[in-house]
Specification:
The protein is mostly helical. Helices cover about 50% and strands about 10% of the residues. It contains 15 helices and eight strands. Helix 7 (about 180-190) packs across helix 11 and helix 8 packs across helix 12 (about 310-325). The termini are far apart.
Length: about 375
């Protein structure tokens, strides 16, 4: 079942105050050692519990845990990625790139069962030694953590290897928000198609790929736009939304100016058979290269010199919402963020609230 002992050098160990330790093999066959038990009975109670857990673990389940623990990290990471059915094709490419550039060169051959907090900390230090940018460090660590916690959930790792580990912290650089004059100038200098992209991103908070899928059928009310899909910027193929399962959607407020812009484009240029508005010369949908080219041309014609990208229009949307007192929880939902922490980390400084302002509002209520 296991053994208990004291590692001190006292002559009469049964009377000394040093704690007892226990040694046993877990369900995966790996030898474990624990310490900190004040009495023989507490050590025996722990061993009994371990024995009961092993005895109640089905043989097939124990074999599966053992097999997972023996797998190399690279092998397990590959199988893990294929099981992430909720990932969009672009997310799969991004995660795969992170694994091959940052994680696998260091940890590919290590067996799953051998991961401990020390190994995790060594991995973080290796990224620091390689001068990996803070944002890339956090992305690599987040992916690495998801994989190991999945392996632990399935029994390949007995103890949490992230206990006590301080994760890399990335503080986003201050975002650049375009002014309304800059947005109007670029719209005036751009094509009709680019104006649709600008209106949907700055007015409804859509991502690039979501704006490529501009569709008049998504105007489900005079003031509501439903986002049901995105266009993969590389393949120009329809794909499900980021952080959403197939068939899921979200809705965003649609200002009157955006609605008028979509209806005007439909009247002047029409749509395809399914209601899509945007096409390129080479494809039935826009892609990243089309947007980058048209954005660059329009920005240059408009004389806008600041380092603004099309994605900056999303920042304008968030700034416009938060500056007008719209709750950040609503903004996070409309923008399609996975959780509010992302929204808060990026846009907290745009919120008009302060302790002084809060005190005045609370005083009015009293």
């Amino acid at each position: 079942m296991g053994s208990f002992f004291k590692s001190c050098a006292c002559v009469r160990q049964n009377r000394c105050s040093h704690p007892y330790a226990i040694r046993y093999r877990d369900a995966t066959g790996r030898q474990r050692e624990e310490t900190g038990y004040a009495t023989q009975q507490s050590a025996l109670d722990r061993l009994t519990k371990v024995y009961e857990e092993k005895r109640n673990t089905p043989r097939a389940q124990a074999d599966l845990k053992r097999d997972i623990g023996k797998q190399r990290f690279g092998e397990y990471a590959t199988s893990w990625l294929t099981r992430q059915r909720h990932y969009t094709p672009s997310s799969v490419r991004t995660v795969s790139q992170v694994l091959h550039s940052q994680v696998l060169p260091v940890l590919e051959s290590r067996r799953i069962s051998t991961f401990t907090s020390t190994v995790v900390e060594d991995f973080i230090m290796s990224m620091e030694e390689r001068s990996v940018r803070p944002a890339a460090q956090q992305n690599a660590f987040d992916t690495f953590k998801k994989i190991l916690l999945d392996a632990r959930r399935r029994g390949g790792i007995t103890e949490n290897p992230f206990d006590g580990v301080i994760s890399p912290e990335y503080i986003p650089r201050k975002i650049t928000i375009p002014t309304l004059d800059e947005i109007h100038a670029i719209k005036s200098a751009g094509s009709d198609e680019l104006r649709i992209i600008i209106d949907l991103m700055s007015g409804c908070g859509l991502r690039n790929g979501e704006a490529y899928a501009a569709n008049v059928e998504r105007m489900v009310a005079d003031d509501v736009y439903r986002i049901t899909e995105q266009i993969d910027g590389r393949t120009r193929q329809r794909a499900r939304l980021k952080h959403r399962k197939p068939g899921e959607f979200r809705e965003a407020p649609m200002p009157g100016t955006v609605r008028e812009s979509l209806l005007r484009f439909e009247k002047e240029h029409g749509t395809d058979a399914n209601g899509y508005l945007l096409q390129s010369q080479r494809s039935s949908h826009w892609g990243h290269s089309t947007l980058e080219y048209q954005w660059g041309v329009a920005k240059k014609k408009a004389g806008v010199t600041r380092k603004l990208t099309a994605y900056s229009l999303r920042h304008f949307f968030a700034s416009n919402c938060l500056g007008r007192g719209i709750p950040i929880t609503d903004v996070a939902e409309w923008m399609g963020h996975k959780n509010i922490n992302m929204t808060f980390r990026i846009y907290r400084h745009l919120m008009p609230a302060s302790i002084g302002r809060a005190a005045k509002l609370l005083n009015e209520g009293l």
